[in-house]
Amino acid sequence: EGRLEVEYRLSKDGHEESRHASYRIYTSSQIVNMLESAGFSAIALEDVAGREFRLGSDKLIVTARVPGKA
Is 25 helix (H, G, I), strand (E, B) or coil? Predict the structure, then answer.
């Protein structure tokens, strides 16, 4: 399981607070598998320029067809 744990420290006017955040990290294959398991189809993985997503792409854009919709 990929998970990113982050501790934020915020300070203003001598007052300091800490906040914790936990983010799940998925591979593109895991995202496709989850969508297929939920019945989605026509799944496309692209970068922000519309090119096929690949290792090294800055961002992932996922589109998928909703079950039962044209």
Answer: strand
